[in-house]
Design a protein that fits this description.
homodimer, mainly alpha, 2 strands, Arc Repressor Mutant, subunit A, DNA-binding
Chain lengths: 113, 113
DNA sequence: TCCACTTGTTCTATATTCCCGAACTATTGA
DNA sequence: TCAATAGTTCGGGAATATAGAACAAGTGGA
């Protein structure tokens, strides 16, 4: 198993961030982690009732989020502790990420009405 | 030639917007149009010196931007008048788009240093 | 120590999407 | 009517995404 790559703050690109966030599964992961204020393992997103996402697919999504710079993952025994890099990113990009997550959140609310 | 489809403001999704903006060519188009305050035809992006983009590719990019809701295109004789929908989008999403375009613009500046 | 179990990654095949040249449509102006 | 211009559509090869299967690595109990 190769080590987990995390880009330095200055190597993160807007393009990478937006691409990573242009997928509903990834943005959900991103939003949950940003709210969590702590860490979550990957499997936490698997048995979410409604959507059965194969774990190989999930693994890819986490990799994309990680390499885009949106999340940080540390191996802790057999599992992965994922945390949001949004606080760092806010220093570089200001309220951009917050606005995007907010927009997604509002959209979710509307569709439930 | 089928008519140009433009989503209504309420049918525009964050996912569609972010996907459309996760491509360097499209975001450049988007940024130029947003700044232009007027309209531009597609061909204006073709002979931009450095990058030679085939027009079939450009046509696809404009279509994606249009169907994501980022731009509006009207046939005017043989050409297309493209304009930014950012003002409308700001009403729906607040400063999100502005923040994203700003972030791209800053990135451009940094890379030139 | 051995082994079953859990979490996540890698491999591989299929499916989907993207890119770009070529052919095409539609409009204008000579 | 015909050539020129601006975009679109089509088709095939390249790149990407998805998901099942095999694998790797750590944990804990017998």
């Amino acid at each position: 198993m190769r080590p987990l790559y995390h880009p330095a703050l200055e190597d993160i690109t807007v393009q990478g961030l937006l691409y990573a966030m242009s997928d509903p599964i990834r943005v959900r992961i991103c939003a949950e982690l940003a709210q969590a204020e702590g860490t979550m393992n990957c499997a936490a997103f698997l048995p979410n009732g409604k959507t059965k996402i194969p774990k190989s697919t999930l693994s890819q999504h986490f990799k994309i989020l990680r390499e885009a710079g949106l999340i940080r993952s540390e191996r802790k025994g057999v599992e992965l502790k994922n945390s949001s890099r949004c606080p760092e990113l806010r220093k570089k990009y200001g309220p951009m990420l917050t606005e995007i997550l907010q927009a997604y959140a509002n959209e979710g609310k509307e569709s439930k009405r």
